[in-house]
Amino acid sequence: MNLVRVLVQAGDPLTRSAISGHLDSRPNIEVVATDRHTQVDVVVVVADRMTVKVASSLRKVKASLGAPVALIAGEITRADLFTAVECNVVAVLPRGSATKERIEEAVLTAAAGGGVLPANMLGELLKQVERIQREVLSPHGLHTSGLTPREIDVLRLMSDGLDTAEIAVKLSFSERAVKRVIFGVTSRLKLRNRPHAVAYALRMGVI
């Protein structure tokens, strides 16, 4: 496994030292100092609760480092969870159950592109995603991917190798309408070309 570089942020120096010391002792993790200009793969943030100050700090981390965040919180509400997710938090550990092993697991999972959430928080997050799809996106003909059903149909046929004329026949559109759909997707989502649009749809899991 590649070396995972971790930045630890905590208001309490003793907590920061304890977490940093444990993580730095692991063979596949290196804790970096805040004053070092180096790549950071994961940021561990420790906070009592999600205050305005903590949220602001998380947004600065997202803007400056772009690294996933593992948040160790003494208290976190449903609203806090949604704010945290917007701030690039991919792992949430209740402070009372944040053992050294769980912190290490959260760091490695975050570095690998995964996420860690308590079961009740995961349920809340899924409910929120479903509510957004039902109340916000679906009434406007949109999917969580940002694509409309018509765009998804066109991209699915493109991924099967069909050209513009063949897609038009399959969907009973004019060729001009198919081209408008493709242009709309690529321009709205800032995609470079048709293969890029198909790749985007594949990554979003809609085709």
From TrEMBL:
<keyword id="KW-0805">Transcription regulation</keyword>
<protein>
    <submittedName>
        <fullName>DNA-binding NarL/FixJ family response regulator</fullName>
    </submittedName>
</protein>
<dbReference type="GO" id="GO:0003677">
    <property type="term" value="F:DNA binding"/>
</dbReference>
<dbReference type="Pfam" id="PF00196">
    <property type="entry name" value="GerE"/>
</dbReference>
<dbReference type="GO" id="GO:0006355">
    <property type="term" value="P:regulation of DNA-templated transcription"/>
</dbReference>
<dbReference type="InterPro" id="IPR000792">
    <property type="entry name" value="Tscrpt_reg_LuxR_C"/>
</dbReference>
<keyword id="KW-0238">DNA-binding</keyword>
<keyword id="KW-0804">Transcription</keyword>
<dbReference type="InterPro" id="IPR016032">
    <property type="entry name" value="Sig_transdc_resp-reg_C-effctor"/>
</dbReference>
<feature type="domain" description="HTH luxR-type">
    <location>
        <begin position="140"/>
        <end position="205"/>
    </location>
</feature>
